[in-house]
């Protein structure tokens, strides 16, 4: 494989990783706090839609991304109501939201954009990092992405700092591990879970927005196509750590990037195996490394 | 008390504390006081009211009547926050620590520290270091809780309690899970605190510990304060006897046990070691034999390992080492249903959580368990008629007050639920019956019914093991009584010749002489 | 939590009224959306009803569309009795389809009906195995079956895709599908003039099997025991890990049959993405049907009608009809959850009040009950 091809592969991987990274980091924070979002896909999809909607209505990409965040957060709000107010299991809520949001956003294409099915918005341009992008090969690969990609990767150390060094991060970890003990120490576990849920929704929404606003320029039916589930897998495979999640996301995106380039690169693996690899690898990791995969103890418990 | 200059050395006075729960009088007109710099032990069996009293002091419960004065002034303590403000610290028996977080992080979280104040790990770590030095509580501030031993975790709880600069410190069974050396260290720390003027209330049931470290001892029994004495006036025998009180069945008057039990050994436990839930071994190398046609009682205070022992024999809990023999056959490797098939029956202590499936009907509950298959089911298909017939027969025989066998088991009263559990277990005529607190929470009639049933088992040559905290019950029911404390057997006596003093001492961890 | 699943979703908890109300409310809410989109909801719903039930032919289409939802829903309800969430029904559906396609493509056709039966059996077995994997991981490693079964969905879909686009592809074709199966392996049409196929029989047998297993077998009792209280089941001596695996496998078998019914009955060949999310909708159907066979059949018919009636919805753009159906389905479950939560909260408040009423200070306060240390 030529250097150019490799460079392009890496650049594509990093660019493709950004939407997933937003969603995965959001989900990581949420799961550290004890709430699992099977409906992550719905949050991303909603964000993808509201992002395009906001951007095309206002003409500004900034409003677009804010709209994307709002869309994802709205789904998270609904999830929270169903789980914390109605008392439903988190799993059920997630599955139902996936169905509902898919329907709503597909319907929204017609309702909001009218007959203009491919309503397009200008996408986020590449933003070469001054100086660094000049580096041969590395510059092309890493530092010639659009702005939000850099934001996504900066979120990795930011979320690491947030979780382990701030007061609220401490409360999050306590709520995810032993909510009973945390409560007895004065932590308002319910409030913590709400906040991380909304945060996750917003981030996932931004991830969806990244997909449409920075890549495609338009919203199509089911544009996220299961990325939310890959993000879920990435959090698990990354062992609920920011760095691990990032590596998992990059690995999974690499397989996605490889799918298209496989024949060109002389790899003769049927692409379906590349597509299934994130999921398969996660199941295997869970099966084999039960001891070392340590989810937050109270993950998924609604109390 | 009342008028006059407040005696400065009295930190806390509790007067006339009364607290009732439905059906139970936990504290009845208890008076208690604590002086500056003293270690005051609170002694008593489970159910005596020690924990309730401390819960009231710490604001976890409210007394129905009575008054608490701290430093001479009446204190209105409604929440733990009030208690902390009044200068009380409490180290509970079950630590509320988060295992994956570090010491510093746990302390930061704890409300003693106060959310909102200086959130700096460094500042917190240095405060922890300061306290550690002052009171001899070494602990690595940056280790995660799960890396610490139980005694180190306790130090963290102590540090959490001491952050509020309390004048009064309550410790609930602090020595329960510690080794001898760790216990010595703990007493040193407490002495240290006392010397600096802190008043310490120590809840315990280990007589030897109490005698070693306490200045004064108060004994509670059945919700009442029996006596407060200085350590000089106390000795093990006296304390044991005060804790237990007079047994209703005096030594010679016990209901006639079966004549000298001559049956062969039906259940043999050899060197069984079982891990507890919170680190450490709940059962430490125990061996015992049960003969056919005998009822063996196991006495001991709650948490001495009796429940874990029975769970291990039944196969519900994993045994680290040792063996269990049923009628000479080694059943140590068998899972629960395997042991059941061989003839073991187990009545768990918490019928609510473990004994019944509350969402199934009585008839369905009675049809569970491998030994029931035919005739309740043939080739996997439920034989409705047989199930109903069996259920009705059992309901009649065990006198279960259920309007029909199809009512949900969860709707029955506690006593009837226990009867259903017994019916299910006993209906297959097991060779060994293990019961843990079988009459807990039952009224008199239900208790008698249970006892009758157990006697019937004995009559048909089964071996019965009964764990109970009620000595009267054991003396009435059992042929032999074995006492457990701290995971070991501390003594044995024939029930016909049992004496309160002796058993009390054994339960307190001393050795009978 | 586990007790709640078994009791809360089953009809003992205020019966079907809540489910019906939820569905009605969902239609009502969706009509608001339709109005906002410039569509007359009455016209739309009438059109849907006509398209779904207007003729025998239409009804047969509706029934066909409800079958691949009905079967996985039965499987999900079965596993749920034991407290297990089989979220991966969609994957088991695909694997079941793959297995029956394998039989149909490679086994020399035997006399009717053995070909079909063999294919169905293969589908059920394959679905069972695919579901047993998360079951084993849950029973013996404590790994959540939610996550593992969900991940395996996408693995299953890709396995199917690989086979369809690769070794099983019709030679020289670009359309991602296998060749049509021979008639020996097809579920025959039952009523000429309609599309009603023998899949209906499979579904009815399955529904009866569900009923039989859950109410007439010891295994069914065990499922409910484990779902009601796993810990107590262990203490009582039930082989809980094996029950867990079996519960998941049984659920997977039903899901696999769902795939088979669609492939052998309607499509006649295995093709890519033949499922618009049957396995996930089945979760909603299982809940709306309150985990009972009749309820599930009814809910599946509603969902099937929604899909079949979509053509009659007369909205302008492609994809709109399925989206309205999805909206109604999603809303229905959310309303159901809201209703169940409301009823639960009301009941708990009533129980708490009753408890407080029971607490009188004991008159003979000096005689403690025979207590054995219950309070301290």
Overview in brief:
With 513 residues, chain B is α/β, with parallel strands linked by helices. Chain B folds into three domains: 10-244, P-loop containing nucleotide triphosphate hydrolases (Rossmann fold, 3-Layer(aba) Sandwich); 248-255 and 262-343 and 431-513, P-loop containing nucleotide triphosphate hydrolases (Rossmann fold); 350-427, no CATH class.
Mean pLDDT of chain C: 85
Strand content of chain C: under 5%
CATH topology title of the largest domain in chain B: Rossmann fold
CATH superfamily of the largest domain in chain B: P-loop containing nucleotide triphosphate hydrolases
Molecular structure report:
The complex is a heterotrimer of chains A (303), B (513) and C (376). Chain A has 303 residues and is an all-alpha fold. Chain A contains twelve helices and no strands. Chain B is built from 18 helices and 22 strands. Chain B has helices at 50-57, 80-85, 103-109, 121-135, 150-162, 180-195, 207-213, 236-244, 306-314, 336-342, 351-355, 362-366, 373-376, 384-398, 414-426, 444-459, 471-477, 500-507, and strands at 10-21, 24-35, 39-43, 65-70, 73-74, 88-91, 168-172, 199-204, 216-221, 224-230, 265-275, 281-291, 294-299, 319-326, 329-330, 344-347, 377-378, 381-382, 432-436, 463-467, 480-485, 488-494. In chain B, helix 14 packs across helix 15 (414-426). Chain C is mainly alpha-helical. Chains A and C meet through helix 3, helix 4, helix 10 and helix 12 of A and helix 6, helix 7, helix 12 and helix 14 of C.
